[in-house]
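Q: I have 224 residues here and want to know how they pack in 3D. Can you give me a structure?
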Amino acid sequence: MAIILNLAIQSGSNSPDNSTPFPSQMEVDWVRYYQRNPCQDVNITDASQYPLDNQVFNVIVGEDVNINCDYTIQSGQQLDIVAKNSITLESGFSAELGSKFKARIEPTICGSALKSANIDNNQDTIVSKKNFETQITDKTVLNEDIKIFPNPNEGSFIIDFGSEDYKNFNIVITDIDGKLINSIKELNSSTVSINLSGNAKGVYVLYLLNNQDKSITTHKIILQ
């Protein structure tokens, strides 16, 4: 098969006229293609079976997908898992802040009839090797003692830790898709000034990572 990319000229009200610049060109940033593998059970017991590549769209497809080993999606990497029946992620599976991970049950993925669908051991897990030595699992909280202002803002805001011990915290900021925008590992004051004015307007997520009790405080930041 072939992939053809061309610069088409349409007719009608939007067709070229005397004001249309020629020659013209089409610039292609990247082309994504997929290789179809047989749809069968996938049991990953070693990360080398399905290594992740930062330059390609990583997908694992199967009837039942089980990852039972130390398998980490690193910051900047992406992985989609699509299964017909079930997805099981054992304790060695983790995703760093700044990575992208999606998992879904799609009964028609293998082109056959629906069977019972389930997702086993499905927990919200965030692992940051840069900031933690242990895994943070299913403990995301909102802390009313910590103030963020102004919010919404135009790119500059302040984090006030109040009565919380600021020395226990690391700061991570991502965009809505999980891309890492900024991180601060060592805090020198209970009030921290953040400047995101160089970034696009929109919604960002602020993670306050507590090294003492391994909890995560999250806040939505709006740049306008």
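Q: Anything worth noting?
A: The longest strand covers residues 78-89. The chain has a mean pLDDT of 78.
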